[in-house]
């Protein structure tokens, strides 16, 4: 039986990462913080991952990419890089939500309710609430861009909720009771290429892989450039 290798990439925030997985097993991951742009580092990270296993792009069976939400510039870098690699190799791409990947990072370690919150700037957050059920992530509060107070007001009281993401650090004091009383903030890194890869396998098996030209970003609001236009 042939091995399925997935190359996964996340550049949606400053915590960028790339990972190589074989049949859901993490083979290698390269992660780092970038205060400016991922463009100068991403291809180098991919090259090091492949060289470490004596592989070429032709040996990759599919790609997984965090398609958003997050930094508009970061999303474009990740998608354009993966689309180029997929186009050259003729392999499919599975777009993955960065919020879902962050939630998976928590539920894999036992959190029943996972709440990823990214700082969307302009006084808003990208957020959602997920529950782990039968090994799958179920949305209890839909992914979207929210006013922090409006989003936190929708959280269920009396249930333990684990938060992750820069937005949860920025706005944690605005989480109301009783949700605040059962909230936890696990010390986890924000590097999610591994989780993007795992969700990539899930999507690939469900037939959600698309050709390079069919990959679209996951935006919940217009970019600053679009708003000006």
The helix content is 25-40%
Number of helices: 7
Instruction: Please give the CATH class of the largest domain.
Output: Alpha Beta
Radius of gyration over all CA atoms, rounded: 17 Å
Oligomer: single chain
Tell me what you see in this structure.
This protein is an alpha/beta fold and 229 residues long. The chain is 31% helix and 31% strand. It has seven helices and ten strands. It has helices at residues 39-52, 72-89, 98-107, 148-152, 166-171, 193-205, 224-228; strands at 5-10, 15-22, 25-33, 62-68, 93-97, 113-121, 124-133, 136-146, 161-164, 183-184. The strands form two sheets. A five-stranded mixed sheet has the order 3-2-1-4-5, sandwiched between helices. The longest helix has 18 residues, at 72-89. Residues 224-229 have low confidence and may be disordered.
Task: Please give a handful of descriptors for the protein shown.
alpha/beta; disordered C terminus; five-stranded mixed β-sheet; 7 helices; Nucleotidyltransferase, domain 5; 10 strands; 229 residues
